[in-house]
Fold these 4 entries.
Entry 1:
Amino acid sequence: MDDEIRKSIRGIALLNASEHDGKTRNDAVISKVMGSKPELREKIKEIIPIISEIVNEVNTITLLMQKSELETKFPELLTVKPKQDRVGLPLLDDAEQGKVVTRFPPEPNGYPHIGHAKAAIIDEEYARMYGGKLIFRFDDTNPEKERLEYYAAIKVGLDWLGVKYDHIKNTSDDMELIYRKAEEFIQSGYAYVCTCNKETISKNRREMLSCKCSFGDLTQNTKRWKDMLEKYKPGEAIVRFRGNMHSENTVMRDPTLLRIIDESHPIHKNKYRVWPNYDFAVSIEDSVDGVTHAFRTKEYELRNELYYAILDKLQMRKPRVLEFSRLEFDGMPVSKRILKPLVQEGKVSGYDDPRLPTLEAMRRRGIVPEAIRKFVLSLSFTKSDTLAPFETLESFNRKIIDPTSMRLFIATDPVKLIVKNNNLTEVEISNHPQKDMGKRKIRIDGSFYISGNDAKSLKVGDEVRLLEIYNIKITKIVPNIEADITDNNFKPEIPKIQWVPSQDAVKIEVLIPKILFVNEQFNENSLEIKQALTEPYYLELNVGAEIQFVRYGYCRKDSANQVIYTHK
Ligand SMILES: [Zn+2]
């Protein structure tokens, strides 16, 4: 047997031993060897004695020696091992390196928001952590609510977040398969077609009563299924899972599997009129897509029983379903039921209004995708609902944007200041205090604007420093503030204020998004608009540039005359 094979068996045995307190076993090593080196399967008879010999050798050395041999001779084996500390996510049960498949299944019925970001990032991080795959699947089986523009918006949002998927598909492309499964269900008696009205169905569910349809025979169900596809009207018939009307879990009281929706589908138009509901579609799709670990928010927890029951009856492979908590910011609801009217009534300017938790709004506001990812991964993977303070996301964002944010001066609610004995015509200022981001020249003539807030606190006789120029003493407050240069010495005790040259000042508006809902009431003052002046250099920055206005805060340039306040 050649040395290369011996060497790789020894590596596998060492790795297995080091993962099990220093002891490995023949069967564990055999299966790993066969799994990683399929070409050796034919030589299994020759190899087993060698494995057993190597296992014995490895078991006689200490755990410490095993680890050091692994590190020196087999470093490649150690690098593929998933590490919990990489992203702070707990390891998965039943997860094999290279074989984990996750999926992100949004319904294209709205704009993507922070909740989608959390799901997509967790799905992607797990796929990467295990060297597996991420499937991006539009769960589009409710034509009443879905629109092409939402498919596009979700895809744009995902790309912006930097989430990379291995495969993209639509559940609606599998309708033929879903119909076959529905027929299989009906044929085997695990489902029946119910023609009761909505009220009766709800009442029966509450009172744990079966309706007469559930006693119908196969002939009746087959006929009714055919009629569903062809002539029943919406609401006249549904396919119901034969669950248990006495179940403690209300989800299991003969839930709906398929219903009629006579609306044009964004992709398939009028090709189908019977559509699976969420539970039926998602369980079948996850199974056929090869998903190994399916994550969803914990509000679906009661639906797990149905998810598994559907796959049980269909004798299909079962993925492992895991829950995480929903992510929402305090006072910033993600629900379409709440956001849609705000947009329709014009209370916000659109789905990219910076007060909203949509990804488009976050982008406009100056939140960067890396910050969202770090933030999502920093939340513990608990099931308790996360009502995260927006400040936590801001602090991640600040750390990321600070090194690349251009420093500029701004005067909000500007007030004029005249320096009588000004003798300078130009100053040169660094664009960033630490990083080399170049310098800018500002023309000055002794006439400045300062912020209204700073002006308010000035009294005759006060000495202040105009940042980067000189110290001045206030000589007059009304009608205009006037001052004289004192000197240019460093004086730690005097206030230092920023300024804008009045001759080249650029007029801008600062949009300051505030909390959208206070005590579940729309906050009429959730958007503050401040008039401000800034330096001419502002005009040279691209839209999208992140600026730190000195002594004010971080803002993103939204247009030639508007910035959006990102955070302090
Ligand atoms: Zn019925």
Entry 2:
Amino acid sequence: MEPIGIFYGSTYGMTEKAAGKIKTAFGRAKVDLYNLATASVEDMKKYRNLIFGTSAWGIGEMQDDWERIIDGLTEIDFSERRLALFGLGDQKEYPESFVDGLGTLYCRLPDKSCVVGDWPIGGYDFYFSLANKDGKFVGLVLDDHNQKELSDGRIKKWVAALKKEFI
Ligand SMILES: Cc1cc2nc3c(=O)[nH]c(=O)nc-3n(C[C@H](O)[C@H](O)[C@H](O)COP(=O)(O)O)c2cc1C
């Protein structure tokens, strides 16, 4: 497999921690981690396999660092790439905007044809999520506030699926 770049925005470190676990789940593949607080679109261009992660902040909001970089994604030619998304949220406190950051990240991608790694919606308890597209989440959804014990298994399963999709 070609190298993988994981880019994440994380305010309290929960998405950062999940990104580290995703890297570990890829085993011997080369995986580089980038916190968007310091990373750039130029860093993303180095990878044909990309993973983007964000937490959720209110109705429709991505983690702040994504706001800074999202419009620059038009500089990347996604046609020769694979992109998978993951999002963290809190379904108990924010059931009407659960993992909305993930949904907004997907919506604002300039090219969605490269997106792989959707995720079943079952097993979560919420009213509404922008990340719900046609009955599936647009990427892996983790809730370390309420379902921490499920996260490792979810990551393992998702990464196994990505190994078949990535270049
Ligand atoms: C002020 C505030 C607003 C939030 N809004 C949402 C939300 O609308 N939907 C959601 O699923 N989670 C929401 N969350 C939960 C965060 O997304 C969650 O705590 C996440 O794990 C934080 O990850 P991070 O530390 O990587 O930023 C909110 C948290 C705070 C403190």
Entry 3:
Amino acid sequence: MPALEIASPDRADEVVTPALGGFERLRVADVERLCDDAVAVTFDVPDALRETFAFRPGQYLTLRTFVDGDAGRREERRSYSICAPAGALPRVGVRRVETGLFSEWLVDRVRPGDEVEVSPPAGSFTPDLEPGTHHGLIAAGSGITPVLSIAASVLAAHDDTRVTLLYGNRRTDTVMFTEELADLKNAHGARLQLVHVLSREPMAAEIFSGRLDAARLRLLLGALVDVEDVDQWWLCGPLGMTADAQEVLVEFGVPKQRVHRELFYVDEPPPELSRAEPGVQGETSEVTVVLDGRSTTLTLPRGEAILDAAQKVRGDLPFACKGGVCGTCRARVTDGEVRMRRNYALEDDEVEAGFVLTCQSRPATGTVTVDYDS
Ligand code: FES
């Protein structure tokens, strides 16, 4: 079986796509190596697209390319958080992940001058830049990327804003943005409380050695942070770390609505979506998808996620992770019912309002309408 191969930008250009489907070709302006296995990729934005690519701190970009495999060429997308302060050129931080062909391509092969297809900034992990606010940030590993953007933007917005940042990594040589964090600290002094925690390297004080798990967060918050003074909390990293941080913040009396979470990956196997459930094999539903004001009604199997099934006809439907994490495929059910299997992206109030992740949702009634424009 031939190995999958990321198509070069030239070959990607040969692919006949009906339209860029919301993606724009942006030229890579710079590739900075952050540590052994991570880079920051900055994109040039032509004047005509400045407004389209203006971003709020904490948002992400979705990149796409084409992959050659046994079954022919297929489209691959990945979302990467923006790690630049508001107002700067968009820059994403990318860490090479094992068997991650997409990240390998970005970390090892993309060079300044290359063109990459990028969709405009998205995501709601974004603070209001109000004066006098104190933001608490907890990040692990590459979870620092949106957090760096938030920290730099909050501190630059007003003279009286403050940031407390707890940042966990394995070893010193795996820390992304070491110098930029030090520069932020130098520029803003006591307005930035920066705490590094390392799990596989001894630190001067025992409290800074170990994983950012619930026990260590209890210690750090209890000893070093005026939790009551923090207005909003922003958590980014793997599921386990963010779940622990949520739990500990609740113990410290922080209201749930002040805690915001962005996942980088979910460290548990996804539920199998391709296998049909008993009783639904062969059954179909009339599913109407609405996107950009255009309605399309399709007869879709009840055993398949709406996104996967509808994409065969509506190639413009938005997605990135297809794992229930990023929220890009969010739509509102305006008729009928669906069964959503996994959700790490939507807040409770969004679910109550009828929003679902279409990559995780199968039709459950004879007719269903999902509206991506809501
Ligand atoms: S595509 Fe990411 S949650 Fe559905």
Entry 4:
Amino acid sequence: MMDEGKKRVAVVGGGAAGLACAVMLADCCRVTVFERNDRVGKKLSATGNGQGNVTNTDMGPQHYFSDDGEKVAAILLRFGWRDTVAFLESMGGIFLPDARGRVYPAGRQASAVTDLFRKTCMEKGVCLMTGCRVELLQKSGHGFMIRHGGGEETADAVVLAAGGMAAPNFGTDGSAYALARDFGHTVTACTPSLVQLRCDPRCVRGLKGIRNASALTLLRAGREICRMEGDVLFTESGVSGDAAFRISPYVRAGDELKIDLLPSVTEERLLHAMARAGDDPLLCIVPNGLARVLARKTSGDVRALARLVKAFPLTVTGTLGFSYAQVTKGGIPLQETDASLMSRLCRGLYFAGEILNVDGECGGYNLQWAFASAAAVSRKIAGGER
Ligand SMILES: Cc1cc2nc3c(=O)[nH]c(=O)nc-3n(C[C@H](O)[C@H](O)[C@H](O)COP(=O)(O)OP(=O)(O)OC[C@H]3O[C@@H](n4cnc5c(N)ncnc54)[C@H](O)[C@@H]3O)c2cc1C
């Protein structure tokens, strides 16, 4: 009875952004979350290698790609990493940064973050409709009609938080863009990001499984595009690992990668050490498996070997694609939304999370966008926008 008269909000997608909206709005609205999977937060539970890297203390628009950097900056300014931590801790738990500023739940369990959302939704009376794929959204009077597998509902406002195209096994195959297109929205070209790089297999032959702390430099037509330091993991078809993921948003097929396999040591110091080592010049310098492959490529030429350690070349042929990507580059243009991420084409329709044309670097930036965009939307729906 007490809920009578409250604004009814339908949230399409029970991922990080949709659940955050639901919790943020639950005190002042009647919220229903429609989730096509049999449970909410499936992708959230898999984040950060299962540890849940929810945000980063080094926060700002410079870590994001979008069609409207100023809007991203404004939204992050109003809901930064500390707000994310405060929001999550208001539901329970402790969230702590590691030495690189990546914030995780103290228990290092992403699924526990999903549990926190699910528990809070239950406590606050949010209706979680799982196994419920939204097939059609339409304007109906002053509100909306939401058609799903099990029937139809109405709502005063709709938040489209149905994710992008990355990792379709979590329910995000890009089909939800059609719900926005029906209102006249466009979708930019989409490409996979934060994903393993595919390279000419001859370059990585014999290296599969070797992990090494490295610096990657990306070159296009001989010009340096960017450089990332971190772990590189050689795979059968290319390179993975933290540094490869972080450089993937910038990569195009045909680019060259130079991997510095010993970034903290100069070539001169390396040559000096190799001269002392005799027959096994890279012993204790790089992993043995890597040393063997490098030695084969240079047939005993010590200078060539040192150069290879400092600039191991790879030709990028592409990425492993959406199935292996963590995030979608592209989506609904921010310019089709107002400052609160409400559609400029349909009053009462809002967007939050990865469905928008915003993607962040690796390190907690995408979940931060999910939470910050949810906050922008919720503030407006709740009527608190000044
Ligand atoms: C393996 C992996 C690890 C990651 N690790 C990190 C990390 O550590 N830190 C970080 O910041 N980011 C990470 N990310 C990225 C991050 O998880 C996403 O950017 C974020 O979850 C996006 O939130 P979202 O709510 O917009 O979309 P999602 O979390 O994708 O949720 C969208 C939901 O909508 C549902 N849905 C889709 N269509 C419909 C429909 N028609 N009807 C009803 N429901 C629908 C989907 O089933 C899905 O549950 C990772 C991603 C992956 C795949």
